[in-house]
Specification:
about 350 residues, Rossmann fold, globular
Length: about 350
């Protein structure tokens, strides 16, 4: 059901306090054609109530002639900030940017973050935002998982369907996504709740077998038939199976870019207030699918770019694939066992 403006204001207040917004700081709310009106209005009001100097920067959409979907992550690289030095300057002069447009995988975002500006992405429907308001407990749990990744040299992933994947680690940083931005130059996404990294270039080997109920994003669909990906030297060299495999294969091939087949980020979900089932309850254009990305115990891997981690791969294709019922180990120690997170910190709703 829809949520009230009061509930959204309270949610924003919590997130802004966790993000250490101080009176007198400058907040710029970045919006576009698809920004949710209630999220926009309550963000502006909440920041003003906390004493911030508040601006709204509304930008025109791009990529309609290239993307195969209205999903903001269906075609990466070019953003409304590309070549827009005036907009970039305004964002760099802000203490906090509330991104209600979806600015990701772009050199402009990295430039803004390097200036010390914090960026918080928030584009899910208001009821999803309210359900998954972040907490300090979320941060502690995700940071603990990230610390385990930092210490590891190898991640292995297996499931009963036949997945047997080995990823060498250490070349790229481990990332914590817990839903707020409490440090200068930090980016995060509300809602979230997962730990991730990128495997070493050219060193991921094995087989990934997707089972019915696993999810393809940005397709925002539960797969109905098995998909088998053969991974060699960091790339998916074969995509085998029935119609679901054909759909995935054709979609990736449409970008006409060999780098679209590269294994990108890998990690697992840690958000108990996110639900595997929720994707089927929303119109595909209403959500990015953060429930699917963050639900507790998933193994989430992706195909496509690594420039967010400091790599050079900037392909426009980005596929996120959350899987259920996997066992994930770091240097032989289980962090997820058959879809159950193995840790000492359990965040409750």
């Amino acid at each position: 059901m829809p949520v009230s403006d009061y509930a959204m204001l309270e949610a924003w207040k919590t997130v802004l306090e966790l993000s250490r917004l101080q009176s007198g700081q400058t907040v710029t709310v970045l919006t576009g054609a698809a920004s949710h009106p209630q999220t926009v209005s309550t963000a502006l009001t909440a920041a003003a109530l906390m004493g911030a100097v508040v601006n709204r920067l509304d930008l025109q959409p791009v990529n309609a002639e290239k993307a195969l979907s209205r999903d903001a992550l269906a075609y990466l690289g070019t953003t409304p900030l590309t070549g827009n030095r005036a907009a970039i300057a305004a964002l760099k002069e802000s203490d906090l940017v509330l991104d209600l447009m979806t600015l990701l995988f772009s050199p402009e975002q990295h430039e803004i973050l390097r200036s010390g500006t914090k960026i918080l992405l928030a584009v899910e429907p208001p009821e999803v935002l309210v359900r998954m308001v972040p907490s300090v407990e979320d941060r502690a749990r995700v940071k603990a998982a990230t610390d385990r990744i930092v210490r590891a040299k190898v991640m292995q992933v297996r499931n009963d369907a036949g997945t047997d994947l080995t990823c060498a680690l250490g070349q790229y940083p481990a990332i914590s996504e817990y839903g707020f931005v409490d440090e200068p130059g930090r980016w995060d996404h509300w809602p979230s709740g997962f730990a991730l990294t990128w495997p070493n270039e050219g060193q991921t080997q094995g087989t990934i077998v997707l089972s019915p109920g696993d999810i393809l994003l940005p397709q925002k669909s539960y797969i109905r038939s098995e998909i088998r990906l053969v991974v060699k030297d960091g790339f998916a060299v074969e995509i085998q199976g029935g119609m679901d495999a054909d759909l995935l294969s054709e979609y990736v091939a449409s970008f006409n870019d060999p780098e679209a087949y590269a294994i990108s980020h890998i990690g697992w979900g840690l958000q108990p207030r996110a639900h595997w089932t929720t994707l089927g309850l929303y119109d595909r254009e209403a959500t990015l699918g953060m429930d699917a990305r963050a639900f507790e115990g998933n193994f989430l891997f992706s195909l496509g770019p690594n420039n967010e981690a400091g790599g050079s791969r900037t392909t426009a294709c980005h596929i996120d694939i959350p899987m259920r019922n996997c066992t994930v180990t770091l240097d032989g120690e289980a962090v997820v066992t058959r879809g159950k997170v193995q840790d000492q910190e359990r965040t409750h709703a």
